Structure to design on (420 residues):
DNA sequence: AGAATAGTGTCTCTAAGACAGTATGAT
DNA sequence: ATCATACTGTCTTAGAGACACTATTCT
């Protein structure tokens, strides 16, 4: 699991110059119809990707988070499949990268309170993965059940029991078999695709905690 | 279930003059340490109550929601026990009242996009009531299991099965018996109090949907 | 005794977890 | 045949739901 970071400009008067930060920026009152449109625009400027999933995490506002004074930030997270990530640098950011999420943080020291914002976003994602199909938004077009389970395991940072996982997923109408198999040095695996690339499926029960 | 409303001032230049609205206002950069402090302050101005539970629902921002132009509002909901509500009028609001929530709205036509904000808050509350002890924050100091169940039923707007409800609640360490009973024209009921008036208990499973 | 509400016994059902077993491909 | 991974059978367990039953107070 990785998170997109952008490098802050190095100009002396910029707060947290040269630090890595979550991608973001100010609302453009003329171009942004609403907050979500602003988030989509900012993301597209960095990745050129139309995200299949975007969720508002919350809003942080206080006097300390930005040295320039009282400010608020509304945090969204997007889920982007690994095969759809062509990065673009430019704009106010001198560099862009994907950073691996370890636990619920990243090795780099982030600008502002972004470590806290990332932590909240990862926690939100994790808790929803317990009872939804959110990881499906991270899959390429066709994938095997084992691959989907692996993505669940990566986002949750723990292993899942294979039979229970498969029964659970196949009991919903999330997936659809495609008449192809993933070949390897072993028994080939059935390939699946999402029945609906927009819809989130909610499971009846959450996975067992811990 | 009721929601606190305040009446907008009647001055001609005020948007939505004389309409009922959710209580709120602008951040005071000098007095409000952060967004939550602002919410607590605004609530206290109207009810003079320190809320036992406050949760951020989300942030709405666009150019249309306020005729004065682009604006954002961060919505919080508080849960306040019915026995702790001494209302105060004053400030910018000429009147204050509790309005009954029917479905996920209120009979009055609300100012701005507050009907939508209320809908979102009620939906958030409902969905969390399915798997948490949030309604416990709406209870007076001592209460019976039947009374707690009734509050669950009111917030969820559906009946629950008595035995399942009691088993579920008593299986956690949410409650503590007190050596008193609620007397009536029938068998007296055991009284309980919360073991911890701050903590939210999360149940292993959500209640069955519908 | 009867009404009313409190509280329990117990069966069913669903879905998660555990884990051993079988299946099917490549080498 | 062996290895590796895919996939299944089946038992256990937790907890929700249904619903009839018993318990305890008042009038």
């Amino acid at each position: 699991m990785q998170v997109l970071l952008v490098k802050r400009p190095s100009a002396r008067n910029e707060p947290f110059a040269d630090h890595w930060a979550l991608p973001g920026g100010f609302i453009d009152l003329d171009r942004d119809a609403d907050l979500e449109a602003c988030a989509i625009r900012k993301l597209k400027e960095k990745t050129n990707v139309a995200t299949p999933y975007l969720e508002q995490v919350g809003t942080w506002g206080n006097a300390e988070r930005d040295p320039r004074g009282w400010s608020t930030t509304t945090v969204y997270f997007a889920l982007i499949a690994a095969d759809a990530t062509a990065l673009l640098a430019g704009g106010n950011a001198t560099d862009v990268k994907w950073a691996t999420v370890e636990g619920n943080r990243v090795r780099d020291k982030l600008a502002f309170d972004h470590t806290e914002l990332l932590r909240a976003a990862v926690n939100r994602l994790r808790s929803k993965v317990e009872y939804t199909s959110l990881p499906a938004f991270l899959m390429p077009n066709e994938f095997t059940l084992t691959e989907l389970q692996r993505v669940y395991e990566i986002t949750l940072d723990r292993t899942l029991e294979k039979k229970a996982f498969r029964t659970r997923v196949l009991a919903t109408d999330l997936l659809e078999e495609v008449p192809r198999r993933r070949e390897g040095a072993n028994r080939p695996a059935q390939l699946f695709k999402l029945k609906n690339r927009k819809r989130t499926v909610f499971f009846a029960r959450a996975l067992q905690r811990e």
Notes: The helical segments of chain A are 35-47, 114-129, 145-156, 162-171.
